[in-house]
């Protein structure tokens, strides 16, 4: 099997969305994806792209992707946030995930970033062990905090 990792282009977004939906099923959230191909095309390839993406092809077909964007740390400066890295179930364990991971880390280093960060579910022990073995630190004391659209609306209504 020939593996090639490259920067995604607009025409890759249907395959990227397919992988995002596959990830949602893996994470037991099959109905959580609201995003469309058009959203990905507009948000990733407009005048001010909100994300960048690498895709991994196996024998010419996209079977993995890593979507990331820049963040700014008040302590470190420019960083990269890896939002999602997913490989089609049939291609897991064949090197695509590692190749995508390496592409993101190398890209961040080449861009002068001081840190690359991401979130991993605690029950995804294979991923946790992979990250630890690569030299990454998996923090136990930090908590991810989110406010969804309904909560933002309620908060804004109270603070207007």
From TrEMBL:
Domain annotation N-acetyltransferase: ranges: 3-157
Pfam families (UniProt xref): Acetyltransf_1
UniProt entry tagged with the keyword Transferase: yes
Key words, A-Z: Acyltransferase, Transferase
Listed InterPro entries: Acyl_CoA_acyltransferase, Diverse_Substrate_AcTransf, GNAT_dom
Molecular function per GO: N-acetyltransferase activity
PANTHER family: DIAMINE N-ACETYLTRANSFERASE (PTHR10545), GH14572P-RELATED (PTHR10545:SF29)
Family designation: Belongs to the acetyltransferase family.
Name of this chain's protein: N-acetyltransferase domain-containing protein
